[in-house]
């Protein structure tokens, strides 16, 4: 469900026609819908009903302060993977006490900042990290709350670049090593085990992998409790997929039912870390046609957004819907929509049937709210796009377009 729709052939974000934004702010521009973001959060948290739970939005999906603020207002917690993300959560008014910290390469500084800030817990990914966290805890005279991120060795059946729960993945500790590590951690004075954690991958479109992983995790949770570890949280990670084209992922309600039944009657608060699900189809990337260009093999449409602005098609062969901002009748032709970046992979939409785009026309790359702006780069010295948040018939720039001076801040020629 999202709030981007045509009215009299013009694509709107809620009640705002996209051309109004593009004309005022320029292109490329990311446009987000407040109503979609709020609704997604509510649907997700309501899916767990009265089962004790906390939704910790995965900041990496879209770390823009206005998005974080909106979700914090809704009551969301946060899943972070760096000190930078912690700083963003705090700057946006998010609560550290509802924040969990994952990632295979945390530094001592990042750990110390998060511990001082009073985060809910650390998701620890290796024995050496456990030892460093213990030292950081002792240095602050505290017991750092932690869960081990366990690799349940489950095939999430998603793109190989975004699967994380396989044996060969760098994430988490092997399932078989977990019990011994908790026993070791119990002897460390700077640590306090509070839960167990897993995350098996992203854009997962069926329930079976979640069921398999969570059944294993619940068994582990029970075993650890029986051994005297005072655990309270089972962090089930994120990863629930969304519809880009034809995918039919489980609904949040189906997902929550699967999770709750897989974990059974354990006395844990479930932590759910959705990223894409909350923000994915709450955003579009609006771009303008620069040129058309015909070669013997292809009809190309060159637009002003490139792979640096939206990296997913180049990196994962990802498909994003492409919609004309103003619909026009005419004969459809097959085109490749490409960006200005000097790379052959800079193809935003491949072999799409469109009424032949005209120079200056606007197009929207759909479902671009997740892993769009947060993965944007300055490759080819391209300033990153502006971002706009729509709310009903009102809208505001929530991040200015970068200037070229921003590009060389800190440089010394
Ligand atoms: N929790 C952890 C520990 C994660 O590593 C991730 C995503 C999430 C939660 C959120 O997953 P989500 O609900 O968004 O699927 N850049 C890729 C996706 C990378 C996901 C990395 N981890 C893409 O554009 O498809």
TrEMBL record:
<dbReference type="Pfam" id="PF00278">
    <property type="entry name" value="Orn_DAP_Arg_deC"/>
</dbReference>
<dbReference type="InterPro" id="IPR022643">
    <property type="entry name" value="De-COase2_C"/>
</dbReference>
<feature type="binding site">
    <location>
        <position position="371"/>
    </location>
    <ligand>
        <name>pyridoxal 5'-phosphate</name>
    </ligand>
</feature>
<feature type="binding site">
    <location>
        <position position="239"/>
    </location>
    <ligand>
        <name>pyridoxal 5'-phosphate</name>
    </ligand>
</feature>
<feature type="binding site">
    <location>
        <position position="316"/>
    </location>
    <ligand>
        <name>substrate</name>
    </ligand>
</feature>
<dbReference type="InterPro" id="IPR000183">
    <property type="entry name" value="Orn/DAP/Arg_de-COase"/>
</dbReference>
<dbReference type="InterPro" id="IPR029066">
    <property type="entry name" value="PLP-binding_barrel"/>
</dbReference>
<feature type="domain" description="Orn/DAP/Arg decarboxylase 2 C-terminal">
    <location>
        <begin position="30"/>
        <end position="369"/>
    </location>
</feature>
<keyword id="KW-0663">Pyridoxal phosphate</keyword>
<keyword id="KW-0457">Lysine biosynthesis</keyword>
<feature type="binding site">
    <location>
        <position position="276"/>
    </location>
    <ligand>
        <name>substrate</name>
    </ligand>
</feature>
<dbReference type="GO" id="GO:0008836">
    <property type="term" value="F:diaminopimelate decarboxylase activity"/>
</dbReference>
<comment type="pathway">
    <text>Amino-acid biosynthesis; L-lysine biosynthesis via DAP pathway; L-lysine from DL-2,6-diaminopimelate: step 1/1.</text>
</comment>
<feature type="binding site">
    <location>
        <position position="343"/>
    </location>
    <ligand>
        <name>substrate</name>
    </ligand>
</feature>
<comment type="subunit">
    <text>Homodimer.</text>
</comment>
<keyword id="KW-0028">Amino-acid biosynthesis</keyword>
<keyword id="KW-0210">Decarboxylase</keyword>
<comment type="function">
    <text>Specifically catalyzes the decarboxylation of meso-diaminopimelate (meso-DAP) to L-lysine.</text>
</comment>
<keyword id="KW-0456">Lyase</keyword>
<dbReference type="InterPro" id="IPR022644">
    <property type="entry name" value="De-COase2_N"/>
</dbReference>
<feature type="binding site">
    <location>
        <position position="371"/>
    </location>
    <ligand>
        <name>substrate</name>
    </ligand>
</feature>
<dbReference type="Pfam" id="PF02784">
    <property type="entry name" value="Orn_Arg_deC_N"/>
</dbReference>
<dbReference type="InterPro" id="IPR009006">
    <property type="entry name" value="Ala_racemase/Decarboxylase_C"/>
</dbReference>
<dbReference type="InterPro" id="IPR002986">
    <property type="entry name" value="DAP_deCOOHase_LysA"/>
</dbReference>
<dbReference type="InterPro" id="IPR022653">
    <property type="entry name" value="De-COase2_pyr-phos_BS"/>
</dbReference>
<feature type="binding site">
    <location>
        <position position="312"/>
    </location>
    <ligand>
        <name>substrate</name>
    </ligand>
</feature>
<comment type="similarity">
    <text>Belongs to the Orn/Lys/Arg decarboxylase class-II family. LysA subfamily.</text>
</comment>
<feature type="modified residue" description="N6-(pyridoxal phosphate)lysine">
    <location>
        <position position="60"/>
    </location>
</feature>
<feature type="domain" description="Orn/DAP/Arg decarboxylase 2 N-terminal">
    <location>
        <begin position="35"/>
        <end position="279"/>
    </location>
</feature>
<protein>
    <recommendedName>
        <fullName>Diaminopimelate decarboxylase</fullName>
        <ecNumber>4.1.1.20</ecNumber>
    </recommendedName>
</protein>
<feature type="binding site">
    <location>
        <begin position="273"/>
        <end position="276"/>
    </location>
    <ligand>
        <name>pyridoxal 5'-phosphate</name>
    </ligand>
</feature>
């Amino acid at each position: 469900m999202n709030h981007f729709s045509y009215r009299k052939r013009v694509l709107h974000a809620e009640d705002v026609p996209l051309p109004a934004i593009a004309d005022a702010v320029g292109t490329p521009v990311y446009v987000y819908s407040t109503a979609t973001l709020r609704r997604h959060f509510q649907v997700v948290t309501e899916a767990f009903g009265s089962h004790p739970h906390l939704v910790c939005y995965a900041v990496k999906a879209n770390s823009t302060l206005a998005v974080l603020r909106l979700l914090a207002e809704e009551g969301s917690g946060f899943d972070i993977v760096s000190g930078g993300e912690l700083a963003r959560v705090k700057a946006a008014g998010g609560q550290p006490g509802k924040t969990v910290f994952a990632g295979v390469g945390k530094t001592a500084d990042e750990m110390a900042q998060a511990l001082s800030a009073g985060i809910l817990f650390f998701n620890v990914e290796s024995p050496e990290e456990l030892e460093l966290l213990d030292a950081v805890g002792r240095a602050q005279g505290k017991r750092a709350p932690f869960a081990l991120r366990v690799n349940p060795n489950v095939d999430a059946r998603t793109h190989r670049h975004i699967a994380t729960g396989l044996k060969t993945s760098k994430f988490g500790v092997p399932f078989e090593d977990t019990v011994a590590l908790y026993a070791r951690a119990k002897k460390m004075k700077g640590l306090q085990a509070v839960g167990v954690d897993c995350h098996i991958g992203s854009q997962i479109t069926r329930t079976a992998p979640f069921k398999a992983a969570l059944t294993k995790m619940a068994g582990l949770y029970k075993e650890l409790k029986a051994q005297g570890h005072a655990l309270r949280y089972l962090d089930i990670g994120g990863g629930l997929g969304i519809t880009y084209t034809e995918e039919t992922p489980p609904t949040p309600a189906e997902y929550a039912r699967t999770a709750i039944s897989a974990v059974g009657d354990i006395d844990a608060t479930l932590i759910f870390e959705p990223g894409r699900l909350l923000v994915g189809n709450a955003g579009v990337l609006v771009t303008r046609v620069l040129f058309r260009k015909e070669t013997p093999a292809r009809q190309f449409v060159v637009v002003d957004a490139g792979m640096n602005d939206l990296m997913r098609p180049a990196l994962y062969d990802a498909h994003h819907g492409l919609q004309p901002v103003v619909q026009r009748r005419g004969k459809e032709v097959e085109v490749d929509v490409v960006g200005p970046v000097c790379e052959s992979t800079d193809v935003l939409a491949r072999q799409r049937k469109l009424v032949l785009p005209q120079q200056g026309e606007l197009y929207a790359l759909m479902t671009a709210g997740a892993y769009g702006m947060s993965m944007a780069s300055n490759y080819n010295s391209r300033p990153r796009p502006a971002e706009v948040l729509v709310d009903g018939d009102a809208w505001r720039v929530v991040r200015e377009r970068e200037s070229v001076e921003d590009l060389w801040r800190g440089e010394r020629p």
